[in-house]
Amino acid sequence: MRIALFTTSFAPTVGGAEKQANLLADGLSRRGHQVVLFAPQAREGWTEPKRRYEVVRYVRLRSKTWLTRGWVSRLLGSLHAAKRFDVVHAHGVYPAAWLVARWCEKSGVPLVVRAYGGDILPGEETQQHWLRRLRTRKALQQAIVLLAQNSELGSLLAEASGASDRVIPLRNGVEVDLFAQDCKQVTEMRSRFGIYALTLSTFYKKKGLDVLLEAWAIVISHDFAKGCKLVICGHGPLEGQLKMQATRLGVNDSVIFLSGVNGEEKVALLQAARCYVSSARREPFSNAMLEALAAGCWLVATRTGGNIEIVQQSGRGELVPVEDAASLAKALCQSLQEDRCLHDRSSRMSAATPFSLELMLDNYEQEVLERCAVVGK
Fold first, then answer.
1. What pTM was computed for the model?
2. Residue of 248, 189, 261 lying closest to 213 (CA atoms)
3. Does residue 281 have a pLDDT over 90?
4. How far, in whole angstroms, is CA 198 from its chain's centroid?
5. What mean pLDDT is predicted for residues 114-122?
6. Domains (ranges, CATH) in the chain?
7. pLDDT for residue 324 is more than 90
8. Tell me, what DSSP letter sits at residue 43?
9. DSSP letter at 184?
10. Exposed/middle/buried for 110, CB within 10 Å: 0-12, 13-18, 19+?
11. Which residues, listed in sequence order, are joined to residue 118 by a DSSP beta bridge?
12. Cα angle for residues 10, 111, 310 (degrees, 5° grid)
């Protein structure tokens, strides 16, 4: 099928939504579908890598509220004349789905909407603004398929659209083979950091890293944890505040902040960790947790969103209440003292297979594209 995938955030921006957009477009292209991905202009100096699918860059949005859909309709219309799209996939409810919904309605091309989480969850920025909230509902009501990463998002999408029969669960997928492979740098990582807990995260309030630091202060007060480390890998606007908090709590010597890592270094960092921790206040379906699962990590995660489904279905971790530093510290202490990680490739693959990218692509083809094909006839 010919698929237009429209997103308002993409590489070189690094994040879960951007990663899943690439994995979906690449995977569908590999399976023989024709995908055109529409994304904002990249920063100056960015070189577009060679991809299986076509990327069309448009002028970056200046506002999420005061914007026009006319230029999107013209852009989609001009390429539709040549490509004849069978499906438009909006990667995000707002503003992505809002921007393409009118064109889909007029052209008759089926609209598929995949919610990020932050664009539909109550209390987040989008749903706090009355105009964005109204536009969200209108866009959802025009969609043929609504994709939910977890059951909570599924309920919210059904309520906002008034059409529960259009909601299809579609969890994020992970490249199992990549993270389950035996990595040569594991020994080097263990030599570098010793016994450590790891988190890969953007530095925003919703990720709960401030709570994680409070929990870590409790952890290292125990004798057994004197040499243990907490490795926080990522970036974001709260980096300075978090480093100041680590100093104030007296844990800066045992907390290591790393910038983003990729490739084999990332795989080794995950496989060498004693446990992976997610302290998020809100987490639709964490890519990093899936990667950690595929790398064999034991998971310590807050009981929220997709964290619940990943831990419960895999049986590879412990859930703790959100905003509870004491409970988080207790779970970390237990994980650091007992090595529960999987150290062979076959075990790692078995644990992560239910969350594999290939299974996600199977579900997308069978549940989404087949439904759109029927509607488009």
1. 0.94
2. 248
3. yes
4. 17
5. 89
6. 2-173+357-376 (3.40.50.2000), 176-354 (3.40.50.2000)
7. yes
8. P
9. T
10. buried
11. none
12. 60
